[in-house]
Amino acid sequence: MDLTTYAELAVLLVNSPDRLSGLPGLRALLEESGRPEHAGHLGRDDLDALRDLREELVAVFDAAAGGHEREVVDRLNALLRRHPVHPQISAHDGEPWHMHLTEGGRFSDQYIVGAVMGLAAIVTGLGVDRLGLCQASPCRRVYLDTSSNRSRRYCSERCASRANVAAYRARKKSDQARSGR
């Protein structure tokens, strides 16, 4: 079972607040997460539950970005208590038997359990500092740093490029100011 894939559900949810304005947006989120088969079974309760989870996950990533390791762990433990994990053996799409995480029938329950358990696995296996908040201003998107040297600082190549160009221009402007041009 690759829990990083489950943790990506948390990242996708945090980075998609616009998709939680209604059921059509949530269906689009499911398409992106690779779970389109659940789109027809969504209800208002699922949307409300995922909105609530998003707010809690934002607080987890903010605490991680602030270096508040204990707060991250306390928040994840609270979520794990509220949404107990039930592993299930599954086979689909021509894949061999493998493990899935589930908490019952509603789609939002399954999404929540996967996202929270995935983040818990990242924190316990790799460390709290692997939960990142993009350092490109004004971006506030989150990411998982699964690099071997803990070097990721941006949510995407686009933000990394934008930050590098801004830093280059600032250095160039500073150099020009010092040289009196």
From TrEMBL:
Q: Which InterPro entries match?
A: ABATE, ABATE_dom_sf, Znf_CGNR
Query: What is the name of the protein in this document?
Result: Zinc finger CGNR domain-containing protein
* Listed Pfam families: ABATE, zf-CGNR
Q: Where is the Zinc finger CGNR domain?
A: 130-172
Determine the domain of life of the protein's source: Bacteria
